[in-house]
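Structure (tokenized):
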């Protein structure tokens, strides 16, 4: 345990967050900073959002930087992790939140090659490239590290008309379990959060015209999760006290999907 700073402090830890300028990633970035961690915000095009959030983190007394890259390419993931390591002095935490959910409902029989390939590139290739670079950086730490990937309930039960997305998140879940075993001897834990519906702009279309209220009625707790609701369990996996948790898929869905 990190007794010097208390069990709920991440002071001295260095974190990179993909998709870290908004949505779930933005909420994670801010909560990590509030816990004392230095942060590197990975983003693709939202420079202004990243700049504002980075300044907010620095106002909390932490070091914060930002870096634009396309993590669905090997070079983009490598440049992000390299920037984090160089700027923050190393890497202890990696939260991979970047990804896509194609809004249009398309059955498998009509899904074109382009949509399938893009979903795999954004959700699977990016995951692999980021996790690989993070693992390489963390293997240099005596104290190990934390890798948390943002999956989805769709990876557990599937999602009709979004089979590409469900398949990509199912692959992420299998990847977490595989990588967790590989990295456990090095003190690096690998876990995943599986959210259900989350109130972010990615879901703006299905939430429109009363959709949000209809969806909320089908969730046992009676409401749709906020980005903060997802950020809290993610950050909880990054504390020293979570060192014995690895290879797990933590469901955060208000009781809508209960996995045995």
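Design, position by position:
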């Amino acid at each position: 345990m990190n007794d010097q700073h208390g069990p709920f402090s991440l002071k001295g830890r260095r974190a990179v967050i993909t998709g870290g300028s908004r949505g779930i990633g933005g909420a994670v970035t801010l909560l990590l900073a509030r816990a004392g961690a230095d942060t590197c915000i990975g983003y693709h095009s939202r420079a202004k959002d990243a700049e504002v959030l980075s300044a907010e983190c620095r106002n909390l007394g932490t070091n914060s930087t930002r870096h634009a890259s396309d993590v669905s390419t090997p070079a983009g993931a490598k440049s992000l992790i390299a920037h984090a390591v160089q700027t923050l002095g190393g890497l202890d935490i990696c939260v991979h939140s970047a990804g896509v959910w194609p809004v249009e409902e398309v059955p498998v029989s009509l899904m074109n090659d382009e949509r399938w390939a893009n979903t795999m590139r954004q959700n699977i290739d990016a995951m692999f490239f980021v996790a690989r670079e993070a693992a390489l950086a963390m293997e240099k730490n005596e104290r190990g590290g934390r890798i948390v990937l943002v999956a989805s309930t769709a990876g557990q039960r599937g999602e009709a008309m979004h089979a590409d997305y469900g398949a990509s998140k199912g692959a992420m879940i299998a990847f977490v379990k595989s990588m967790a075993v590989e990295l456990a001897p090095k003190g690096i834990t690998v876990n995943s959060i599986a959210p259900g519906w989350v109130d972010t702009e990615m879901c703006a279309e299905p939430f429109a015209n009363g959709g949000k209220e209809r969806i909320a009625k089908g969730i046992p707790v009676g409401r749709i999760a906020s980005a903060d609701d997802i950020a809290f369990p993610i950050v909880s996996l990054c504390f020293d006290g979570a060192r014995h948790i690895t290879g797990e898929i933590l469901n955060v869905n208000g009781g809508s999907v209960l996995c045995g």
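Reviewer-requested clarification: The first strand starts at residue 14 and ends at 18. The CA atoms of residues 95 and 148 lie 5 Å apart.
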